[in-house]
Amino acid sequence: MLVLLAGIFVVHIATVIMLFVCTISNVWMVGTSSLGTASSGLWLFCNRTCEQLPVSSDNEPSLRAVQAFMILSIIFSVIALVMFIVQLFTLEKGKRFYITGGIMLVCWVCILIGVSIYTARFTGNMPGFANSHHGYCFILAWICFCFSFITGILYLVLRKK
């Protein structure tokens, strides 16, 4: 049981770190042109130097929603981690980690909404660049989606023994 708790805790910490990395870093889309390789993220567009992400007025609310949901997912993941530690030391034997699991599933929903909006609105949206493809941040966000769902369900099922 202790090994299972430690494993879930490690996966949860890895999820928090990957959420930070994929939200802060600017490699959600990567494209190449005659000027070189460029990448765009949630905040900046980087070619040789980084500048504010150029977004049309039609896509600006979508980008703000993605930014907000990714930040919310980080917040909920950190809150779930703190709640797990609190519940680990305060729960009685035989009780389940319902609060931690519920908060982690809210984090999962925030990741789902944020990455789905990005997928629908911004995939392949690098005008003037050929061979645009997803960067590592986009892939990390989907990995965090899977990890947060698994840990949320495991927290709901897990009992303190």
From TrEMBL:
It is a multi-pass membrane protein. The chain crosses the membrane at residues 7-29, 65-85, 97-118, 138-158. Its main location: membrane. It comes from the Eukaryota. Keywords: Glycoprotein, Membrane, Transmembrane, Transmembrane helix. GO terms for cellular component: plasma membrane. Gene3D superfamilies: 1.20.140.150. It is found in: Membrane. Belongs to the PMP-22/EMP/MP20 family. This is Epithelial membrane protein 1. It comes from Ceuthmochares aereus.
